[in-house]
Structures are given as structure tokens and as C-alpha cells.
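Quick one:
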Amino acid sequence: MYTLYREQYVKANLADAWDLLKDPANLDRITPEYLCFRIVSPVPPEMFNGLIIEYRIKIPWFGEQTWVAEIKHIKEMRSFVDEQRLGPYRFWYHYHQIDTEDGRIKLTDRVYYEVPYSIFGKILHLLFIRRTLKRIFDYRKEKIAAILET
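Output:
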């Protein structure tokens, strides 16, 4: 099992940060264009526990993949989880947390994931997956800051 941990601070208020994250459609705004991300299931303007979201994502060398995620463990203005139900990973559990610290908002991502394909998957992780996830979360960090700090 692998872990990806990220945190960032933004000059914003808690309500604005939560408003960005609670709307499932905003995932499109913070995902790099090269992933050709698109939501294919209807989504409400605000997530709720048990919400199932289906989307498509293009993974280099593997083509378009279906990803189905469930939103769960929502603590209003504090945290939530998106967990892959179907998709490219053997396991994907993404915990999102928002805190107020010294007049700023601290956004924390903890992703626990397992890659498929046994030893081949571990090699892919070493050569490609880990760096790709880093690039995706670097992009998210920039986009979130740009959205919340304007």
C-alpha cells in the first residue's frame, strides 16, 4: 500500500474553501487537462454521504478508464472521503481535510492506494504512477490557490 500526503495553506475563508470542495463538478476545474477528465453521471451541486460519481479519465499508455467513486464520511466544513469503487487502482481512499490555522486555511489530502498488476504494477509505480500523482496534485495545489485566493 502506498500513501500520498499533501498539505497547502491558502488565504481564504473556511466557507469559500468548503464551497469549492463540496461541489463535485469542481473536480473538473482542478484536474489537469491532459487527463481528459469528464464526469459522466449526474451530480448534485453539493455532495452527500453515499453519492456515487462516475467519470472517465485518460491514463497515458492505458487509454480512457472508467472511475466510480463514492463520497462518504462527510463532516460539514471539516472533511470527507472519496473512495474508488471501480477504476484503475486496486484500492484508492482519499481523505480531504480542511482546518483553520493562523488566519489561513490548511487543506490536507491523504491518499492510500494500491496499484494492480502485482510486481508489474510496483514497477509502474516506481517509474510512472508516483510521478504522475505528484504532477496531478501539484496542479491541484496551484488551481485551488488560484481559485480561492482571487
